[in-house]
Inverse folding.
């Protein structure tokens, strides 16, 4: 009975319920005044869902705290699980190629995942570990980490790779196939772009592979163009600031960045401080 009540409360609060090995939410492991370093350390001990029993280690996000772009994948893959770093395997190499082709500076990019443990199952008769898609419940349980990363980094642009990331950010009704490559304003104060996951490009059948890769690169090029335009706007803003006397204030476009973050985080989750 007590357990049923617990599950009911967890669900009412938008949390995944606890089970025998997990508390039901990463929020239970959030440090009081998060910084990227303390978040990463705390996430290493996360038991918010049962995936900590399956993956080797927590794979936290990585990149400079000043990054303008936050890229969200689904979950670490086999290589990432072994190395403990995001996007270091084949999908990461394809992503790196697309970023370079889009003239997006790696120093402007923070990479992370919607779910921070590798979910896999053994392939019978082999030693291979086969990727398994995380459930909604696991995505929900892990969301506090992504939310805290977004709160601390306050990126100008969020790029979602694949449906899991896009739906974690934009809701379950979001369809990557219909909305890919489009700039979507979010109430996070960031522009969101969604595209396919680079793993899906790598998995495409030989006759579709080239097109899949070209379209993936094209989506990231749109992100690069958006960033270049925004840099231009910022430069003009700065110049206007300098020569303010000559420019009526109303002429200066409002800065879209640096607004308080608020979004789809389940209400129950604690809000991490943003000045640590
Ligand atoms: N795929 C992902 O979604 N994330 C990674 O970190 C690696 C592969
Ligand atoms: Fe915690 Fe996320 Fe790992 Fe689940 S997947 S144990 S919520 S870090």
């Amino acid at each position: 009975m007590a357990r049923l009540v617990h599950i009911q409360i967890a669900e009412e609060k938008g949390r995944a319920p606890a089970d025998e090995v997990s508390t039901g939410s990463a929020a239970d492991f959030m440090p009081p005044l998060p910084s990227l370093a303390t978040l990463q350390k705390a996430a290493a001990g996360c038991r918010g869902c049962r995936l900590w029993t399956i993956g080797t280690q927590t794979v936290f996000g990585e990149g400079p705290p000043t990054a303008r772009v936050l890229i969200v994948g689904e979950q670490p893959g086999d290589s990432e699980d072994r190395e403990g770093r995001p996007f270091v395997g084949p999908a990461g190499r394809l992503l790196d190629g697309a970023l370079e082709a889009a003239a997006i500076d790696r120093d402007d990019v923070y990479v992370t995942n919607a779910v921070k443990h590798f979910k896999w199952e053994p392939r019978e008769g082999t030693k291979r570990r086969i990727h398994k898609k995380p459930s909604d419940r696991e995505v929900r349980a892990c969301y506090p980490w992504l939310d805290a990363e977004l709160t601390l980094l306050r990126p100008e642009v969020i790029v979602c790779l694949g449906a899991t990331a896009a739906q974690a950010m934009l809701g379950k009704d979001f369809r990557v196939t219909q909305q890919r490559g489009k700039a979507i304003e979010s109430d996070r104060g960031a522009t969101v772009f969604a595209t396919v996951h680079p793993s899906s490009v790598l998995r495409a059948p030989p006759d579709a592979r080239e097109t899949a890769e070209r379209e993936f690169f094209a989506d990231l090029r749109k992100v690069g163009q958006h960033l270049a335009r925004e840099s231009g706007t910022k430069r003009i803003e700065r110049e206007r600031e300098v020569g303010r006397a000559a420019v009526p204030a109303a002429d200066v476009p409002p800065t879209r960045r640096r607004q308080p973050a608020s979004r789809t985080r389940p209400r129950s989750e604690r809000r991490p401080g943003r000045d640590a």
Q: What stands out?
A: Residues 206-242 form the longest helix (37 residues). The chain has nine helices and seven strands.
